[in-house]
Amino acid sequence: MKQYEISAPVRTFTGEAVGVQFRNGTGYVNDGSDDGRAALAYFQRSAYGIREVENGDAPIVVEPPADPNPDGVTGGSIAQTGALAEGPFDPADHNAAEVQAHLDGADAAEAERVLDAEAVGKNRSGIVRQREAVLASKQPAPADDTTDSKGADQ
Q1: What is the residue-level pLDDT of the chain in tens, covering all 154 positions?
Q2: Would you give the end-to-end CA distance of the chain in angstroms?
Q3: Could you give the strand order of the β-sheet that contains 26-30, starting from the edge strand earlier in sequence?
Q4: Which residues have C-beta within 8 Å of that of residue 124, sequence separation ≥ 6?
Q5: Which residue spans within the chain are E strands per DSSP?
Q6: Ramachandran category for residue 44: left, alpha or beta (phi over 0 → left; psi -120 to 50 → alpha)
Q7: Distance CA 32, CA 77 (A)
Q8: Which residue of 18, 65, 94, 103 has the lowest C-beta tally within 10 Å?
Q9: In angstroms, rounded to a whole number, what is the distance separating the alpha carbons of residues 29 and 70?
């Protein structure tokens, strides 16, 4: 079993992505389980840095209890406050309606990334079963052929 250090595209990201905890843009995962291998595959397809570490190199991460009222943070959801989360959209941090709304506004690459993250994360059937339809809707429309079926010279 190998241990890997994962570097998030946003170096200040603290949170979870596809089951891996990050602090200040760095997380650790091993390939000793199906979940770990799926997370590594996701990170390889996305804009994450991956570095194999020796067994003693990876720190043991102990998360302190979350401060319920950190300085400068007031209550309210993103929709209420207009605040944006740092880092890429993680469907695991959102309910199904929020994920669907994000997919509606996403381009093809972002939709595929979010659907992949959903499949290795919460794997909600209502989102995952729509994969092909969502991705098909992101493809460019075929060119419109305006010539009539009898030909242009009739």
Answers
A1: 888 899 988 888 888 888 899 988 899 998 888 888 999 989 988 878 899 887 655 554 444 445 555 555 444 444 444 444 456 888 888 888 888 888 888 888 888 898 888 888 888 888 888 888 888 888 877 766 555 555 555 5
A2: 72
A3: 15-17, 20-23, 26-30, 3-7, 49-53
A4: 96, 99, 118
A5: 3-7, 15-17, 20-23, 26-30, 49-53
A6: alpha
A7: 36
A8: 65
A9: 28
Token pair of 23 as six digits: 């602090």
Determine how β-strand 26-30 pairs with β-strand 49-53: unpaired
Measured in whole angstroms, the distance separating CA 114 from the mean position of its chain's CA atoms is 4
Cβ(46)–Cβ(124) below 8 Å? no
Tokens of 14: 């603290």
For the chain, the residue count is 154
